[in-house]
């Protein structure tokens, strides 16, 4: 098969949402549609909320499947669709953000009763920064929720993105009748089999008793208003992430899913290229294979050091047994063990194409952000660093183990598992993370891989801000509420106690230009 054709068939996206909005349910229904699974309940790992955070090891073991279910491929309408999971709850970590670097579009799931929630907002911002298309699925229409206009308004004002409803709900909760499909002016009823059709005057082509229902008439009026006064459909704006197509449905009832998928495959982008450190944009259809690593899943079994490195194939075709060079150290090796993921299974693969995500067995050779290539030399730009929110002082329990301790920190930091800071005067190591899980993984790996017990002392939640004009920083600006530390590149960073402390500082020292990472 022609490489170009294979690549054209690929669509790779992540689902972003706040816990409980219905991400797992939607994923499962998409897989059902794609025939990748036969029954609901196959995608596990969503109930991690039941466990205390310190139980993460147990959680990982019990659900076992979490690795495999973090990337899944299914077929729909001739396309090969890759869904990437963005772990939430206490699994939230920098990996969650980095996953968004490996996709070409995102699907945002919103609970109709709750609207935009904090985690959705965080993940959305990363998608927006990348300028990738964002599709919105407003879920749980079978329950009472906010009014559709209110939800669109909330999306537009909170996220600063235009909306274009592709479907429009008729009623909600007990009176949910169905959705109007804007593209073909049909109505898909929630509880009935047959579709209804609307004519140009918004009248039903065939009479139906629903016409007597006032909620129905209200929804038709709203729909007319959307058509007349809403944002224009604009493919280019969708492609840039400036306008989001919006769908209404109920994942649990497998309702509105097909309408979503049909439109998604029409407007979601094919695999896009990536930029190299030399500023060159590599096209996915480039003859040479290349890709970058965006996540490393450490083995949970302490007896085995091997890990799984997740790679986004950026260009060309991957073939099992091929030679690839690691750009960081120019070492060439044969890739003999690679896997791809199905819903409840992972299988060894023989080939993959640009757009696909593959898992490479790793005995400690890879780091997050690494490029692998065959043929022409290339190296992709580094993955961004994200602003951590949680901090922990860390030290070795046994002072005799300082060497192991620092080696462990250095490697885990390089690998992207955690961020490293140190205090101004005492050089006390401080770890930074976006999610609590990162600390737990760090502690576990220090013990198991570097044989070092550590002591961690929470510094708590802080707002980290870097400084554009470091030369203007004075020692006197350092205080417990605006604590000055160094990052791993020896840049100075203020850790503010809270928003108030940051504003107070900005007022007092207007000459200091603060900025955050992503
Ligand atoms: P998440 O991955 O985003 O965290 O959400 P998940 O799919 O686990 O869904 C969270 C809860 O919302 C689940 O209920 C799920 O059944 C429910 N849900 C998902 N989609 C819909 C929908 O369209 N309508 C309604 N009414 N509920 C929906 P739960 O009680 O927490 O779990 P379960 O015991 O039902 O599995």
TrEMBL record:
- Name the source's superkingdom: Bacteria
What the entry lists under CDD domains is as follows: RF3, RF3_III
Keyword flag Transcription: no
What subcellular locations does the record give?
A: Cytoplasm
InterPro entries cross-referenced by the UniProt entry: EF-G-like_DII (IPR053905), EFG_III/V (IPR035647), G_TR_CS (IPR031157), P-loop_NTPase (IPR027417), PrfC (IPR004548), RF3_C (IPR032090), RF3_dom_3_sf (IPR038467), RF3_GTP-bd (IPR041732)
Q: Which residues form the Tr-type G domain?
A: 8-272
- Give one Pfam family, short name only: EF-G_D2
The UniProt keywords, alphabetically, are:
Cytoplasm, GTP-binding, Nucleotide-binding, Protein biosynthesis
Primary location recorded for the protein, binned into one broad class: cytoplasm
What positions does the entry give for GTP binding?
17-24, 85-89, 139-142
PANTHER family registered for this protein in UniProt: PEPTIDE CHAIN RELEASE FACTOR RF3
Matches recorded under HAMAP family: Rel_fac_3
Family assignment from sequence similarity:
Belongs to the TRAFAC class translation factor GTPase superfamily. Classic translation factor GTPase family. PrfC subfamily.
Q: What does this protein do?
A: Increases the formation of ribosomal termination complexes and stimulates activities of RF-1 and RF-2. It binds guanine nucleotides and has strong preference for UGA stop codons. It may interact directly with the ribosome. The stimulation of RF-1 and RF-2 is significantly reduced by GTP and GDP, but not by GMP.
Protein name, entry field: Peptide chain release factor 3
Which species is this record about?
Jeotgalicoccus aerolatus
What gene does this protein come from? prfC
């Amino acid at each position: 098969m022609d490489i170009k054709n294979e690549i054209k068939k690929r669509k790779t996206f992540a689902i972003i949402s706040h816990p409980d909005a219905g991400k797992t349910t939607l994923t499962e229904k998409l897989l059902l549609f794609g025939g990748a699974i036969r029954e609901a309940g196959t995608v596990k790992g969503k109930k991690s909320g039941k466990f205390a955070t310190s139980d993460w090891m147990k959680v990982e073991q019990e659900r076992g499947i979490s690795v495999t279910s973090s990337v899944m491929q299914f077929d729909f309408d001739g396309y090969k669709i890759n869904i990437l999971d963005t772990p939430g709850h206490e699994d939230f970590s920098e990996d969650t953000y980095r996953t968004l670097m490996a996709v070409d579009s995102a699907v945002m799931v919103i609970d109709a009763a709750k609207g935009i929630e904090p985690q959705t907002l965080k993940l959305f911002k990363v998608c927006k920064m990348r300028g990738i298309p964002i599709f919105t699925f407003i879920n749980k229409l079978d329950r009472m929720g906010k009014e559709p206009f209110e939800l669109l308004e909330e999306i537009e004002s909170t996220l600063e993105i235009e909306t274009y409803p592709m479907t429009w709900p008729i009623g909600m909760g007990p009176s949910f009748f169905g959705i109007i499909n804007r593209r073909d002016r049909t109505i898909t009823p929630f509880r009935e089999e047959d579709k209804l059709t609307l004519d140009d005057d918004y009248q039903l082509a065939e009479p139906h008793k629903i016409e007597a229902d006032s909620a129905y008439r209200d929804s038709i009026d709203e729909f007319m208003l959307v058509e007349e006064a809403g944002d224009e459909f604009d493919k280019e704006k969708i492609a840039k992430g400036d306008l989001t197509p919006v769908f209404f449905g109920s994942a649990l009832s497998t309702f509105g899913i097909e309408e979503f998928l049909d439109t998604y495959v029409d407007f979601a982008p094919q695999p896009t290229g990536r930029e190299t450190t030399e500023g060159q944009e590599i096209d996915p259809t480039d003859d040479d294979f290349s890709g970058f690593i965006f996540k490393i899943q450490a083995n949970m079994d302490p007896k085995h050091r091997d890990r799984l490195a997740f790679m986004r194939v950026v260009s060309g075709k991957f073939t099992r047994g091929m030679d690839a060079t690691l750009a960081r150290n120019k070492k060439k090796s044969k890739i003999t063990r690679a896997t791809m993921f199905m819903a409840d299974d992972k299988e060894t693969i023989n080939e993959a194409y640009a757009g696909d995500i593959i898992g490479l067995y790793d005995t400690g050779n890879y780091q997050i952000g690494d490029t692998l290539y065959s043929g022409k030399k290339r190296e992709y730009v580094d993955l961004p660093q994200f602003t951590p929110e949680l901090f922990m002082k860390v030290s070795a329990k046994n002072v005799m183990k300082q060497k192991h301790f620092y080696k462990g920190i250095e490697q885990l930091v390089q690998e992207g598992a955690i961020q490293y800071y140190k205090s101004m005067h005492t050089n006390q190591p401080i770890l930074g993370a976006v999610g609590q899980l990162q600390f737990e993984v760090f502690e576990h790996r220090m013990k198991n891989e570097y044989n070092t017990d550590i002591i961690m002392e929470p510094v708590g939640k802080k707002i980290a801000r870097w400084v554009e004009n470091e030369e203007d920083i004075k020692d006197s600006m350092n205080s417990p509420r605006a604590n000055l530390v160094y990052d791993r590149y020896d840049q100075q960073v203020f850790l503010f106690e809270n928003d108030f402390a940051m504003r107070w500082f900005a007022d007092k020292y207007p000459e200091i230009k603060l900025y955050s990472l992503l």
